[in-house]
Specification:
With about 290 residues, the chain is α/β, with parallel strands linked by helices. Among the domains are: about 5-40; about 155-265, Glutaredoxin, CATH 3.40.30.10. It contains eleven helices and five strands; from the N terminus they run αααααβαβαβαββααα. The protein is elongated.
């Protein structure tokens, strides 16, 4: 029987086995019996199964700093390549959509140009022009029932001024210039009214002296030239001391633009050209084959 010292130092019988079968069995049995009675701290390490060794696949992973850096560089390279590929696909898609939109826009533009060309050909027809002009004249004659003046009216006193406003037909615009002798700008305004009265015969242009209309001395010195605009008996425009607006010397076009801007005169640019155009002359009669010898 092995002593404690033998168990600690190890007995040869525990680690030696004979080549014979009986010795092997006794050795294994003695070893098992001995190990069964030893404490766990004194038992030898158990035999673990060795891992299966696989064949070399041709590559290895380096987990050192250089390997990590190389893996990171490869990762960034793949990311950049993926981003560039996505950018190329996006540009191709944008180009495709742009070409599609451009084609549709060109087709719409060509269609509009064709329609405009056809419409222009129709409007340039002489027969159609004459028909439209006559029709426009008929429409304007039916709606144009206002009286025509065509000249400048000189009012003598305040009563004539009141009658010129109150006794006029509804819808007629009455524009009156209040002037004073010896005041700069009043003479120029009277000349402008003379021209405008002939150009706008449906508007009633009047002039009256400030003293005859009952104006004060202060108004004669500081308020003229003055314009009063009436329609349907109501004052719709009141402008005093117009030399501050036009200066001391001005022309009829300046006053005309001023009145058009404030809506007291019709704008000639808004009148259709067919209403003011001359009738189309037919030259076929001159080229007739039937002549008088």
């Amino acid at each position: 029987m092995a002593t404690l010292e033998d168990r600690i130092l190890g007995e040869k019988l525990q680690y030696y086995c004979s080549s014979s079968e009986s010795e092997d069995e006794s050795c294994e049995k003695g070893k098992d019996d001995t190990e069964d009675h030893r404490p766990k701290s004194l038992r030898g390490p158990s035999c673990a199964a060795r891992p299966e060794i696989r064949g070399w696949e041709g590559s290895s992973v380096n987990t050192g700093p250089k390997g990590v850096l190389k893996d990171w560089q490869r990762y960034k390279q793949l990311e950049n390549e993926k981003r560039e590929e996505q950018e190329r696909e996006r540009l191709q898609l944008i180009k495709k959509l742009s070409l599609t939109c451009q084609s549709e826009r060109d087709a719409e533009r060509e269609k509009e140009e064709d329609i405009e060309k056809d419409l222009q050909e129709v409007l340039e027809d002489d027969f159609l022009k004459e028909y439209m002009r006559k029709r426009m004249e008929e429409m304007m004659s039916q709606t144009n029932t206002k009286p025509k003046f065509g000249k400048l009216l000189h009012l003598k006193d305040g009563q004539e001024f009141l009658d010129a406003v109150d006794k006029e037909k509804r819808g007629v615009t009455v524009i009156t210039h209040i002037y004073a002798d010896g005041i700069q700008g009043c003479e120029a305004m009277n000349g402008c009214f003379q021209c405008l009265a002939e150009e706008y015969p449906q508007v009633k242009f009047c002039i009256v002296e400030a003293s005859s209309a009952g104006m004060s001395r202060h108004f004669e010195r500081s308020g003229v030239p003055a314009l009063l605009v009436y329609k349907n008996g109501n004052l719709i425009g009141n402008f005093v001391r117009l030399t501050d607006e036009f200066g001391e010397d001005f022309f009829a076009v300046d006053v005309e633009s001023f009145l058009i801007e404030h809506g007291f005169l019709p704008d000639p640019s808004l009148v259709p050209s067919l209403a003011t155009s001359q009738p189309v002359q037919d030259d076929d009669d001159d080229d007739s084959d039937f002549g008088v010898d």
